[in-house]
Design goal:
Blueprint: E1 4-5, H1 6-22, H2 24-34, H3 39-55, H4 63-78, H5 82-97, E2 102-103, H6 105-123, H7 133-148, H8 153-170, H9 194-210
Antiparallel strand pairs: 1-2
Helix pairs in contact: 1-3, 1-9, 2-3, 2-9, 3-4, 4-5, 5-6, 6-7, 7-8, 7-9, 8-9
The structure holds adenosine-5'-diphosphate and magnesium ion (2 copies).
Residues 31, 35-36, 38-39, 42, 80-82, 85, 119, 123-125, 131-133, 178-180, 193-196 line the site of adenosine-5'-diphosphate.
Protein name: Dihydroxyacetone kinase subunit L
Pfam families: Dak2
GO molecular function, one term: kinase activity
């Protein structure tokens, strides 16, 4: 069955944009402890640009092209570490999804997997480095394994969002090994990673919009 049509995809992105706006101060506060205090404002600016792209009548009404426009808007407006990484995530999702009207559970999971591989390639970080990957990897792996074991989509995407949040929480005791935070070394221990926090919002927004 097709669970993510164009309307659902747009709803997901708009919901994420709203969540980023709502939690922008928190994301920036987390980044002020271990970075340069701009993650919330960076991502809020980027998702605001995405929402205006979605509102533009000339934006194509097809899954891959919408994801591609999203990635391009993020790359061109966010900058820093997270712009290219979130941008790559959506651009790789776009390439995986292709020009279609809707995605079923397995093609959605494949698109998330492609996005994850893009972040790994582009950022050259690994699990446990205290980055967005520590929410993204468990989210994708849990979605995949839940679907593989025959669980219905709504349970699988919820389990993915739960895993992203657990992964986000698990960044607190980690020592940062990538990005700006890595310059602070031991001083990063005890602080939750901002990028893992926004990535958990992305998967919670997916669970909240892709289940009816
Ligand atoms: P900047 O660090 O350039 O100011 P942001 O503050 O917007 O960019 O984003 C910081 C977040 O980016 C970090 O919290 C971390 O999750 C993520 N990040 C940084 N470097 C990497 C990397 N190499 N791979 C994956 N994620 C990364
Ligand atoms: Mg920053
Ligand atoms: Mg910055």
């Amino acid at each position: 069955s097709e669970i993510v049509d164009v309307t659902t995809l747009r709803n997901w992105l708009i919901r994420f944009a709203g969540d980023v706006e709502e939690f922008s101060a928190l994301l920036t506060e987390l980044d002020s402890a271990i970075g340069d205090a701009d993650h919330g404002s960076n991502l809020a600016r980027g998702m605001k640009a995405v929402v205006s792209v979605l509102a533009d009548d000339s934006t194509p009404d097809s899954i891959g092209p919408i994801l591609k426009q999203t990635g391009m808007a993020l790359v061109s407006t966010v900058g820093g570490a997270s712009g290219p990484l979130y941008g790559t995530f959506f651009l790789r999702m776009a390439a995986s999804a292709g020009d279609c009207d809707a995605l079923g559970p397995d093609s959605l999971a494949e698109a998330f997997r492609a996005g994850l591989e893009g972040v790994l390639t582009r950022g050259k970080a690994s699990a446990g480095d205290k980055t967005m990957l520590d929410a993204l990897i468990p989210a994708v792996e849990t979605l995949e394994s839940s679907l593989a074991s025959g669980r219905p989509f709504d349970e699988a995407i919820r389990a993915g969002a739960d895993a992203a949040e657990a992964g986000r929480d698990a960044t607190t005791p980690m020592l940062a090994r990538q990005g700006r935070a890595s310059y602070l070394g031991e001083r990063t221990v005890g602080h939750q990673d901002p990028g893992a926090t926004s990535m958990a919002l992305l998967f919670r927004a997916a669970a909240n919009t892709m289940i009816d």
